[in-house]
Design goal:
By secondary structure, the protein is α+β, with helices and mostly antiparallel strands. It is built from 2 helices and 2 strands.
Length: 79
């Protein structure tokens, strides 16, 4: 999956009120296990984005795992 800039206006619908389903999930991941990296900023930015688009956060997924891991090695993605 390619990185997405959540502030890129081209990714947004022209009329967000036309979106029928207002639910979303948040997925945050950092590569380092331990205290060296935190996903706090990612989570905060995504929560603010959801709020700005009037989205309802149904669930938040957080991982501390290498992006090189296969999907079947990542319990959060299997859920």
């Amino acid at each position: 999956m390619l990185p997405v800039d959540i502030h890129d206006k081209k990714l947004l619908p022209t009329n967000p009120k036309k979106i029928m389903n207002r639910n979303c999930v948040i997925y945050c991941r950092v590569s380092s296990i331990g205290d060296r990296q935190s996903n706090e900023r990612q989570l905060r930015d995504l929560e603010e984005y959801a709020k700005s688009r009037s989205l309802i956060i149904a669930k938040t997924y957080e991982e501390k795992i290498s992006g090189a891991k296969k999907n079947d090695e990542r319990p959060v993605l299997i859920e």
